[in-house]
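Standup notes
- DV: blocked on the single-chain target, sequence here:
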Amino acid sequence: MSEGHWLLAGLGNPGPGYAATRHNVGQMLVDELAGRTGTTLARAKARAVAGTTRLGVLPGGRPGPRVVLAKPLSYMNLSGGPVSQLAAFYSVPPERVVAVHDDVDLPFGAIKLKIGGGEGGHNGLRDITKALGTKDYLRLRLGVGRPPGRQDTADFVLKPFSAAERKELPVFLADAADAAELLVTEGLLAAQQRYHGR
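- DV (later): unblocked, structure below
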């Protein structure tokens, strides 16, 4: 699993007004991993901030794979351009591209991983699929729960987490960061076996 770069792209919307919203939980995870690894995210040509690091530890104590941590600076619905440009620049094949995103179909705190499949109405994923020309890239899905009552989903994901959720958010992000490390060091199946159904 150690040859070549991986690209881990945290999806979200740019600017401080969106930073604490559910829709930006993917970018929060990238910040968690950058802090964990001491990685500086700097402006890249591909309308993103990005930095390279090694993630996790391989058997025998060797450093984990090289990973590009990135946060697109485009709006969520236009994530494909930055992701595909970074993938091309670092020669990352689609099966090593990881889109980290919010998922309203999962309860808050749930973590799911998959490769390929549909976009589930997620416009950021739809744009990445179009830009990469394939659905066969990895998705790290972070549950943000469903909107209460009749609240519109689009409005719900653009609101901050509740006070109770904010208390749990550091543990959620730490677990998701562990899942990302396991994904790149041991593969999709190992990460699914550990984190699905929790």
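- Follow-up: The mean pLDDT is 94.
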